[in-house]
Amino acid sequence: MAFPNTDPTQTNSWKKLQEHFNTVKNVQMKTMFAEDPERANKFTIKWDDFYLDFSKNRITEETFKLLLELANDVKLKEAINSQFSGEIINKTEGRAVLHTALRAPKDADFKINGVNVMPEIYAVKEKIESFTTEVVTGSKKGYTGKAFTDVVNIGIGGSDLGPAMVVDTLQYYKNHLNTHFVSNVDGDHVNEVIKKLNPETTLFVIVSKTFTTQETLSNANTLKTWFLNSAPENAIAKHFVAVSTNIENVKTFGIDANNVFPMWDWVGGRFSLWSAVGLTISLAIGYDNFNSLLKGANKMDVHFKNEDLNRNIPVVLALISTWYNNFFGAESEAVIPYSQYLNQFATYLQQAIMESNGKSVDRNGNPVSYQTGAVIWGEPGTNSQHAFFQLIHQGTKLIPADFIGFGKSLHGNQDHQDKLTSNFLAQTEALLNGKTKAEVVAEGTKESVVPFKVFPGNKPTNTLYINKLTPESLGKLIAMYEHKIFVQGVIWNIFSYDQFGVELGKQLASKILQEFDGNDNAKHDASTTNLLQHYKNLRTTK
Q1: Alpha carbon of 386 to those of 252, 294, 379: distances in Å?
Q2: Rounded-to-10 torsion of CA 203, 106, 263, 83
Q3: Residue ranges with strand state E in 178-228
Q4: CA–CA separation, 65 vs 93, rounded Å?
Q5: Could you tell me if 4 and 363 are in contact, meaning their C-beta atoms sit under 8 angstroms apart?
Q6: Rounded Cα gap, residues 477 and 447, in angstroms
Q7: Has this prediction a pTM greater than 0.90?
Q8: Alpha-carbon distance values, 22 to 27, 74, 86, 328, 438 (Å)
Q9: Counting C-beta atoms within 10 Å of the first and last residue's C-beta, which end of the chain has fewer, N or C?
Q10: CATH of domain 8-73+307-492
């Protein structure tokens, strides 16, 4: 089958949506609620332990019908089948996109070039399980015979953000091992981590597909040098493991071949936490919890692949997001989890979403004539209420927001959970209804202050309620956003799984780095030349 290739703006549904937008763009959501007592029920999806209410959006039943027509016009169902069948949908890099296979059951059948990849996936999973068990139980020891107490994950991008987010989110389920993440090439980062480590009891996990990434190797070599200040060379084999495809470079570094966990080119970096890239996750929360994370993601995969589009959570979220992005002209989306555990979630989604769909060329290689991608940002509630909510409530920008909440507190403090949930529910209601001038006056507000206390309302939100934060529910949540990314990439007719946009700056950085040691042959713009000279002066100043 051929992966669909459709300019969305040339579809009948897009044209109908544009006409429809002109008739509904100023409609008030609270009016729609008043006119239809069943609105909340019509725009709610209950699935497993997820409860998605998308009724607080500036959509009518006609809007929803036209958005579903758009999904059909761009052949979304065919695109979903293409991905799950192992078709080369990442065509610019000649790769399949099969991170869904990483969390599939053992008897699943995911083929690439006619070969089922499940046996090799499960061979790696068994290696992860065995290694995790040995480290966690203390049977695998460091060079002085002491059990490991600390794990340092060395990677960047998808080799850092995913594992770091999951470990932080699931800290309630963590075992005794202390985990640290080193990513930035800023030497202050790695040196601050070093201050917390004992070389005798620290395990280092280097995550780099090519084992050539500048930031990762710089940090790995700095940690290796620090380690060898007190340990013999042959101790590297006991303390360093790698997740990579470049076996030769790994061996040259000094890592035992038995301590290499393989990766595959059909897994993109930002979708790789489900693979051996998630080794640090397994070490931090135990293999059983890591496996539960994968099982949760697989449940969402099955839902996404098989559910009708109108009841399909990732599809619905993607269509609503497209409605705001391409018709209302909204440039950003906020993700606001009402759980402090998810404080890194928006940061993780920034890479997942913006690196995937931040494209300006369609699948034919032509410039697009419409907006793609969205700026993603957010912070946990209730902290965010005391920060950027002012702008969402009373600012001039339209900012659709996803509110994510949990029914149960992990530590069981009901008083805190009730207060948290009251804020969670109140904010979306306030964004919906706002506050009129008459309401402000009725409160006895001084006349000169009245305009400043009026809230326009009509601010769109999705509310996702999840029973409890568990490894499995987190797996479903992450996979939900992964599939939303895919759907929007299909609608916008772009390639979501390459990231050439990150390469140009890296190439120029390599050239500039050489100039610090006297190679002044490169030509730069006047601004960069001045800044480069200023840094050279600072570099030589004591």
Answers
A1: 51, 35, 11
A2: -140
A3: 178-182, 202-207
A4: 35
A5: no
A6: 47
A7: yes
A8: 10, 22, 40, 10, 29
A9: C
A10: 3.40.50.10490
What strands, in cross-sheet order, belong to the sheet with 260-261?
178-182, 150-154, 202-207, 240-243, 260-261
For the 128-288 domain, the top CATH level (class) is: alpha beta
DSSP 8-state secondary structure symbol assigned to residue 443: T
CA-CA distance, 358 to 15, in Å (whole number)? Answer: 24
Mean pLDDT, 10 residues at a time, the chain of 542 residues? 88 98 97 98 98 98 98 97 94 94 96 94 98 98 98 96 98 98 97 98 96 93 97 96 93 92 93 98 98 98 98 98 98 98 98 97 96 97 96 97 98 97 98 97 96 97 98 98 98 95 89 82 88 90 82
d(CA 156, CA 190): 13
Q: 95: which DSSP letter?
A: B
- Tell me which residues are annotated as active site: 355, 386, 506
Task: Give the residues across from 435 on adjacent strands.
Answer: 455
Sole residue written with tokens 């979903």: 80
Are residues 516 and 109 in contact, defined by beta-carbon separation less than 8 angstroms? no
* Cα separation values, 141 from 46, 198, 257, 425, Å: 47, 13, 17, 49
Residues 6+ apart with CB under 8 A from 293: 166, 170, 274, 278, 281, 471, 472, 474, 475
